[in-house]
Specification:
By secondary structure, the chain is an alpha+beta fold. Helices cover 36% and strands 26% of the residues. The strands form five sheets. A six-stranded mixed β-sheet has the order 5-6-14-13-12-11.
Length: 338
């Protein structure tokens, strides 16, 4: 199906032939499992009946939906199956969409949505009105304007003092307890599509990296008071574990390597990837105490050994032992620097 579909592709960083989908994962600490997905069909596909026929896309699926609408469908589907989760997290594509945040809020759910550093915000709630005439000449103003000027998420933090930041332990890692600086502030956004002004809790975190400093911006509807700063910081940090799970799916399970051309085979392949990913996660949980650093690569090598006998048992065990010794050395070396 991806043969004729040229669109922006994150892996290659340019427009290319590809298949793009919206994925939903369930997370519990560092344990992450792919749970749902929706294939994204551009307008050029949904408006082309012949192309849809060739790809065997069901008639009811030939309706264009934005990625935000597909994400909302995933959330509703999970709720309809009785899946319980504490909050919804997503990257800036979804966080910068006021309608998506509003829809999650209307579902009665908490969200923690990353936003772009240039996201416009108001530090005080503005009044919206059509300004009056400044002179008798010219047409009457028709455009709604805000009573105060906006700023951006990144400009706002540039004016903060060190006392405006709070150090919070966000999670345990294999190597240490990770701590980041956080700033929380209630801000307002103006959705110009509906002319609605809505409040958000702006969550900003800073952490030191090898290349300097990384700053992350998010919006949440979790109110301070009902949720502690520690809990809100943890929500923002939780998305860290989603990317490694996708890396495992791609690099180890080959999710980005298959070349299905039709609707049903694509969904079959994704379902298989999801199930194998769940098996790997189950093995990690089953062996989390011994050995605690069992990786997806270790489990995949064991499955290949069991089914294909591509190596001897002695070689497999020797290979796993060497990996674990190296991982343990890296962990101990990092802890010695704390």
């Amino acid at each position: 199906m991806g043969k004729e579909r040229k669109q922006k592709h994150g892996n290659v960083g340019k427009t290319a032939n590809s298949q793009v989908a919206v994925y939903g994962s369930l997370c519990n600490g560092k344990n992450v499992s792919l749970a749902d997905c929706r294939l994204y069909l551009p307008v050029s596909w949904t408006n082309d009946g012949k192309r849809c026929d060739e790809a065997a896309i069901p008639m009811e699926e030939r309706v264009f939906k934005t990625k935000q609408e597909l994400a909302a469908d995933i959330i509703k589907h999970q709720l309809s199956m009785g899946i319980a989760f504490d909050y919804v997290g997503a990257d800036w594509l979804y966080g910068n969409d006021a309608a998506f945040a509003r829809e999650i809020d209307n579902m009665g759910l908490v969200y923690m949505l990353n936003i772009h550093s240039g996201q416009q915000i108001f530090l005080e709630k503005p009044e919206l009105a059509i300004p009056g005439r400044k002179s008798a000449k010219g047409p009457s103003p028709k455009k709604v304007k805000a009573s105060s000027d906006h700023t951006t998420a990144c400009k706002n933090i540039n004016s903060l003092s060190p006392s405006d930041w709070k150090a919070i332990n966000i999670r345990d890692s294999d190597k240490s307890i990770l701590k980041e600086l956080f700033h929380f502030r209630t801000v307002y956004v103006w959705d110009k599509n509906t002319n609605a002004v809505e409040n958000r809790l702006l969550v900003v975190s800073k952490r030191k990296t090898k290349n300097g400093e990384e700053t992350k911006y998010s919006f949440t509807n979790a109110p301070l008071g009902q949720y502690t700063e520690q809990a809100i910081a943890y929500m923002q940090a939780q998305r860290f574990f989603v990317e490694p799970s996708f890396k495992e799916q791609k690099q180890i399970l080959g999710m980005d390597q298959f070349q299905t051309r039709k609707w049903l085979p694509w969904h079959h392949q994704i379902a298989l990837n999801t199930m194998v990913g769940c098996i790997i996660l189950k093995e990690k949980l089953f062996n989390q105490n011994q050995p605690p650093i069992l990786s997806a690569r270790d489990i995949m090598d064991f499955l290949l050994f069991r089914f294909y006998k591509e190596m001897t048992e002695e070689r497999l065990l020797r290979q796993l032992k060497q990996r674990h010794l190296k991982r343990q050395y890296d962990i101990d070396h990092c802890n010695s620097k704390q």
